[in-house]
Structure formats: C-alpha cells, structure tokens
Amino acid sequence: MGDASVISEIPLIPDGEQAREWAVRELADPVYQAAQPTWFDRAAQAGRDALASLFSPDVAPEWAAVLALVAAILAIAVIVIAILVWGLPCRTSSRSHRSGELFGDIDYRTAEGLRAAADAARRRGDWDTAIVLRFRAAARGLDERELVDLAPGTTSRQFAVRADALLVPGSAEVRRAALVFDDIRYLQRPGTEAGYGLVAAADSALARVVPAASAEPAGVSAP
C-alpha cells in the first residue's frame, strides 16, 4: 500500500507552469540549436522565395520589376558571400586529371621533384635510377608546360620524336637520351655517368625551350 500511495502522488500530467519549464529545458538542448537554420540558409531561402514569387499570378505587374530587381540583388549577394567564404573556384584545365603514367609506370611527382630525385641518385652513384628519373623529368616538364601531351601508353620513342621537334631542326638529342633510357628500363643494361650526362643535357635543353605564343601542344598518342 505504501508504494501505491507514493506512486499516486506523482503527477502524471504536469500543470501549465511545469510544462513550460520542461519545454524550455528541452529546447535548450544543443541538438536543437544545431538543427536551427543558419543565416546563410535563411538568406538562400529568402532568395528562392523572392524568385518564386515572380511567377505568382497574384503579383501585380508594377511589382514584378521590383521583385525581379530584389531577386537579382539577393542572387549577387549570395554569390559574393560564397566567394568570400569559400574563395574563387580554381581554374581547371584538360591536364588537371593526369593519370600519372610515365612510360609504363605511375609517378605523380612534378618535373622538379623528379629532377631532385634523379640528382640524389646521381650523388650516390645509382646511375640506373638517375637516368630513368631524369628522362621522366624531361617528359613531365614538357607535359606541365603543355608543349607535349603525354597520352596514356606513350612510349619513350614517341615522346622523343615530338620533343626533338621543339629543338633546333635536325636535332636527335632527345632520341639519343631515349635510347639510353630504353637500354636501362627494358634491356636491363647498366647505366653510366656518361649516359646520365646525355639525358641531363637533353632535359636541360628542353627546359630552355620557349614556345611560340600561338603554338598548340604537340599530341603524343599510343600506337
């Protein structure tokens, strides 16, 4: 009986004052605050409402121009705010999604990164690695400058033919470097200091190429 009497004293339905207190406590929960729309959400909704109102049959003709102007101002304001918050969109190009493939291998390093790695290999006497990386640096450098387009599957010989065309007429400097690269990469012949010097000279010559302003990138496609 004692337990029953205690339970009967607990109010199952709160009075008005207590109900308001419970509601205030509940709405103070951070979860509800996070769910509230932000100022940006409200501004965007206002812009959408103003734009939708232009097509309402209840709008008088004399107010249509005013609402159109307000909608345009709101749209411009939203764009300006978006630029201030997130910045200008980055300009993309056809080269922005490179596969990273360089003569059968995937390597996402820049030309400068490849040259630095090649120089480190040169200093420790690893001529095989130094030659391979320096030749790839030459190819990546022209691709970055959009002088030669390295399509997936491009061979070293195809690249060399296009690259030599950028040098003095009749030059075969890059084709000779490609032979050194192929000897190491595919024929497993040991690299030499002289071979590295030949490849490095070709890379340096290509780095000095100044293209004509109207020149289109030379396309290189797989056979």
Automatic annotation (TrEMBL):
Keywords (A to Z) from UniProt: Membrane, Transmembrane, Transmembrane helix
Q: Which InterPro entries match?
A: TgpA-like_C
Tell me the ranges covered by the Protein-glutamine gamma-glutamyltransferase-like C-terminal domain, including all copies. 134-201
Name a Pfam family for this protein.
Answer: DUF4129
Give the transmembrane region(s).
63-88
Q: In its UniProt entry, what is this protein called?
A: DUF4129 domain-containing protein
Organism listed in the record: Microbacterium schleiferi
Organism ancestry: Bacteria, Bacillati, Actinomycetota, Actinomycetes, Micrococcales
